[in-house]
Write a structure and sequence with these properties.
Blueprint lengths: L1 H13 L10 H6 L1 H6 L1 E5 L10 E2 L2 E2 L7 H4 L4 H4 L13 H10 L4 E7 L26 H12 L2 E6 L14 H4 L13 H19 L5 E4 L7 H14 L4 E2 L10 E2 L14 E6 L16 H12 L3 E7 L9 H17 L16 E3 L13 E3 L3 E6 L2 E6 L7 E3 L6 E6 L7 E5 L2 E5 L10 E7 L10
Helix pairs in contact: 6-7, 6-12, 9-10, 11-12
The structure holds ligand FHN.
Ligand FHN binds next to loops.
């Protein structure tokens, strides 16, 4: 509990609410499905699943997919993993089915992570799953086909800047020296890497795998506006409807927060939090620090109540199996969503905000030197025309006071079973009395209906 509160504290306090961007009709159109979807499955899968956090008998600390960097593995050694990559238990339909059972509406898989290995057949580099492994199957093609069969949107993660396999890519300092000198001068022929590998591979992804929901760029090192624009132009010219995330290095379609960071306030701008179920993205055999279904449900509703999307990660093993613990957690949340999804999909942010918590008035700073935010986690609110969805994560003090609104409240009921919830009015306040114990101790949603479509805040 203390740990949970601490992590909420740090996460909530790191994000800054950016200035809103000018409206852009074409972008808003592209974003329609994304704003409705709210919840997606991230998949980090690559050669790093083989060492799974251990190199030459030694535990390699950090994220599973960073093992090449953390253990300073030379390219000629790391490359040998490709000859061992044979995930015979890979069942793309099962993966998509898991996402569906979990209530997720889109899938994003690592097409190429920082290690430079392509999980798809590429004509640009033979360092790919078809040409360099005994498996010889185009993983992305099979997943794209399974997604098409099951009506699931699919996006690709592509590490545009860091490529530790290439002498001119960013990030591999142990084989190829630093990317930049102390004065910032570039020491590698970075544009050579971009033009000969990254840009053509992004073209391949947009040309050979059907409709691509989004490209998830990451860690934009040395990404000048001009370089970023080259990628944006590729995306727009091949698939104009494909979304670009917030980590290209130039403006994307939506804002990506830091990893596992949930901002303290709501925003009308489209945004997404990428997050882990345990601590790593790529599989590590020693990482069993799973978040509970209740924690995941809270994070999902918290994010939606602030106007964002939740992209939650799994890290399949080298055999092609998504760890059972993460499957179980995701499916438990999925069962909750089956009953309570109306409060999530297509729902808008809270009109209130007081329930998120508050900045400390004592001038405290968090570990990053930013104003300290003290989050509250008892309840969250999402909205649709004529309705407020109040999700309780712990039993409210009876009676619960609905924050003041101008609209007349007409009725209240539990979303899960439609049972009426008692409403009383007292001195201009509207109070809810929720039966105890709460119907679902993990999270119980009460729908409050009001007159008119949009809620108007009133002075309390
Ligand atoms: O370095 C990567 C990391 O491995 C992982 O892919 C995450 C996912 O958001 N992105 C980078 C760190 O922010």
């Amino acid at each position: 509990m203390v740990l949970c509160l601490l992590s909420l504290l740090t996460l909530a306090s790191t994000a800054q609410t950016p200035a809103p961007r000018p409206p852009d009709a074409a972008r808003e159109k592209r974003l329609e499905w994304f704003r409705e979807a709210k919840y997606g499955l991230f998949i980090h899968w690559g050669l790093y699943a083989i060492p799974a956090g251990e190199w030459q008998g030694k535990r390699s600390l950090g994220l599973g997919e960073w093992i090449m960097n953390r253990s300073k593995i030379p390219v000629h050694e790391y490359e040998k993993l490709a000859a061992k990559f044979n995930p015979v238990r890979f069942q793309p339909d099962d993966w998509v089915k898991l996402a569906q059972d979990a209530g997720m509406k889109y899938v994003v898989i690592t097409a190429k992570h920082h290690d430079g290995f392509a999980m798809f057949k590429s004509n640009v580099s033979r360092y790919n799953v078809v040409d360099a492994t005994p498996f010889r199957r185009d993983v992305l093609k099979e997943l794209a086909e399974a997604c098409a069969r099951r009506g699931m949107r699919l996006g690709f993660y592509y590490s545009q800047s860091q490529d530790w396999h290439e002498k001119d890519g960013a990030g591999n300092t142990w084989d190829f020296g630093p990317d930049q000198g102390p004065d910032g001068k570039e020491l590698k022929n970075y544009d050579n890497y971009l033009r000969s590998k990254a840009e053509p591979q992004v073209k391949e992804l947009l040309s050979g795998y059907g409709p691509v929901a989004l490209i998830w760029f990451d860690t934009p090192r040395m990404m000048t506006a001009e370089r970023g624009q080259r990628f944006a132009d590729i995306v727009r010219s091949i698939q104009p409807q494909t979304l670009i995330d917030g980590r290209l290095g130039t403006e994307g379609d939506y804002r990506s927060t830091g990893d596992n960071v949930v901002p303290p306030e709501a925003s009308t701008e489209a945004w997404e939090t990428p997050a882990t179920v345990n601590d790593t993205w790529g599989f590590r055999k020693d990482d069993t620090n799973w978040k509970s279904p209740g924690q995941i449900t809270f994070k999902l509703v918290d994010i939606v109540s602030k106007g964002g999307n939740y992209l939650l990660n799994v890290g399949p093993t080298a055999e092609g199996v998504i760890p059972q613990a993460s499957q179980d957690i995701l499916r438990t949340v999925g069962r909750w969503l089956k009953v309570n999804g109306e409060a999530v999909y297509g729902a808008s942010a809270s009109p209130f905000g007081t329930e998120f918590g508050e900045y400390t008035s004592r001038g405290g700073k968090d570990v990053r030197g930013q104003r300290l935010f003290l989050p509250q986690a008892e309840w969250r609110v999402t909205t649709k025309p004529g309705k407020l969805y109040i999700t309780f994560f712990s039993e409210p003090r009876a009676p619960f006071e609905i924050p003041a609104i101008k609209n007349r409240i007409t009725r209240a009921y539990r979303l899960a079973d439609g049972a009426p919830v008692e409403l009383t009015r007292d001195n201009g306040k509207t109070l809810l009395t929720l039966e105890r114990p709460m119907l679902d101790p993990m999270a119980t949603v009460v729908v409050v209906e009001f007159e008119g479509a949009q809620v108007g805040r009133a002075e309390s």
